[in-house]
Design brief:
2 domains, globular
Length: about 200
Amino acid sequence: MRDTFGLDSLVAKLSQQLPAAQLKGIAARFSYPEADKPESLNKRFRKTGYLTLNQLAALVDWKTAGRQTKNFRDNNSEAAVKLVTALAAYAADRLAEAPDIPASILLALRAVHFSTASVILTAWDPSEYGILDVRVWSALHALSGDARFDRGKRVLFTAEEFRLYTLLLRRWGRRVRVSPRTIDKALWQFDKERAA
């Protein structure tokens, strides 16, 4: 895999800041309501190859703390949700080097942005995806000092940021032998504790 983002040096720096044992310890302290919500749908999602409107609405509700649930339900049909999630799952299994493509497919659904797409893809495969969130982005900025992780006042993530994040989690995960989902939990918890 080409290192277009300079991930090797970034992963080395992050691994020094959060060695594997510390990373796992922080992830073990991760505390969020229904923390396993994305993983709880994994077997059903894998079996059918798609999510239903109700299943996806539950993920949207979880990710957005209810802020987008009504908008999501009012503007997406059962057929659209099944088709788009099936296409994204298919792409996720075939385009490992371009994780922004399955995420971008999910943006065809109303009220779905890259952070919500990350939850859906994590439900599909937590061994390849982690949840994108301003809190994990803040943790990456604090740990690395890398300007790419400075959000400023921006709220929504871009396709390029999604790709950077996903490829970073995968490479870091291989280095320390944990899943991207474990790393995202550790980053979220790290930022929560840092802000306390």
